[in-house]
Write a structure and sequence with these properties.
The chain has 365 residues and is α/β, with parallel strands linked by helices. The chain has 3 domains: 72 residues, no CATH class; 183 residues, Rossmann fold, CATH 3.40.50; 56 residues, Orthogonal Bundle (Arc Repressor Mutant, subunit A). 44% of the residues lie in helices and 13% in strands. The strands form 2 sheets. A 9-stranded mixed β-sheet has the order 1-2-6-5-4-3-7-8-9, with helices on both faces. The longest helix is centred in the last third of the chain and has 13 residues.
């Protein structure tokens, strides 16, 4: 470990200094230690820095001990990667305003970033779009494709859950600290990702709230880590459209999943398609757009292969393509109500199925 590493932690603790500011200082001084210890007269020499930004940095720095910051993060069991860390993704060094520090839980080195697809879309995604996205990602089952998203509700959640259920690696880039997970409903998803198949990343100190302006900033990392971006559903003015623009600026392959034209959340998708984005209706379309050939990875422990009971398979087969309510499931499976409810509860707790509007069930694998 470099003796200078603690200063990266110090900068990460700042709340009034952006990554853009830190990048300017680091590039100017060529040393993170010199950047941290810069005096007023040094900072005034740097082109483009505002007086208010310099003063805010100097004032906040007085109350921060970089070594204590580093010790705190290590004691909490969180990892931290920065531009001088060998684990820092090379892809992020090449984007505009690269993050100067990423807190991490899980292991990004498990993920093949050469086969990374970012998936973005609406938090209020339609059931149709979510079902189509699941079917597309199912095609990558047991491969080395990595799915990147933002762990928000809607499309993000479907993307990560589908990755986990298909034995894929996945990376979540969140807009707040690990102690202030947003949305709270994705706490279990957070645990699944960090414990099993990928990493959760954030620029923000553990106790940072997920503030609204964090999410557009987060999007540059989501697209920056990927080789291509799939827009699953997007209104004309949305975070997904911001990510699509960033993807084009970063030279990424832009792909779109068409949806119902009557859905306002597809207006952005069709705008992107008209300007040249690839149309995606299957996983093969993604492979064609990316120019990839993939091979299946042998797996002996994936539940979707052979570990369901006969009754569970009956239910999953019934709701694979159509959402069904309790009465419809009884007719389809011939199970009695008590047995059916026990199995549905078990499958839902395991993240294998989901309820929509509290009435109908749909398979997530």
């Amino acid at each position: 470990m470099s003796n200078n590493e603690k200063y990266w932690y110090g900068f990460a603790k700042l709340t009034k200094a952006s990554s853009h500011f830190v990048n300017i200082l680091y590039n100017y001084f060529g040393s993170i230690e010199l950047a941290w210890n810069a005096q007023t007269y040094d900072l005034w020499k740097i082109p483009g820095l505002k007086k208010s930004t310099i003063e805010a940095f100097l004032e906040e720095r007085k109350n921060i001990n970089p070594e204590e910051c580093m010790d705190y993060i290590k004691e909490r069991g969180f990892d931290f990667i920065h531009p001088e860390d060998k684990r820092y993704p090379e892809a992020l060094k090449n984007i505009d305003n690269p993050p100067t520090g990423l807190f991490m839980t899980g292991d990004i080195e498990l993920c093949n970033l050469e086969r990374a697809i970012a998936v973005v879309g609406s938090r209020r995604a339609s059931e149709n779009s979510k079902a189509v996205l699941r079917n597309i990602l199912d095609g990558f089952h047991n491969t080395d494709v990595c799915i990147i998203s933002g762990m928000a509700e809607g499309i993000d959640t479907v993307a990560h859950t589908s990755a986990l259920n298909n034995n894929l690696k996945t990376i979540a880039v969140i807009g707040g600290g690990f102690d202030k997970l947003y949305p709270k409903s994705n706490k279990k998803l957070f645990e699944r990702i960090k414990d099993n198949q990928g990493a959760v990343l954030t620029e923000y100190w553990p106790d940072s709230d997920a503030l609204s302006f964090h999410f557009p900033l987060r999007n540059r990392i989501v697209s920056g880590l990927s080789k291509g971006v799939l827009v699953a559903e997007a209104a004309l003015k949305s975070g997904a459209m911001i990510t699509a623009r960033l993807a084009l600026e970063q030279g990424k392959e832009l792909m779109c999943m068409p949806g119902l034209i009557s859905n306002p959340n597809t207006q952005g998708v069709y705008k992107l398609i008209k300007t040249g984005a690839s149309v995606i209706t299957s996983y093969e379309d993604i492979l064609d757009a990316m120019g990839w050939k993939i091979e299946k990875i042998p797996s002996n422990n994936n539940k979707s292969d052979n570990k369901f009971s006969t009754e569970e398979l009956l239910i999953l087969d019934a709701i694979k393509k159509d959402m069904l309510n309790i009465d419809e499931l009884i007719l389809k499976t011939n199970l009695n109500i008590n047995d059916l409810m026990i199995i549905l509860t078990k499958l839902e707790l395991e993240g294998i199925i989901s309820q929509t509007n509290g009435e109908k069930y749909i398979s997530l694998i």
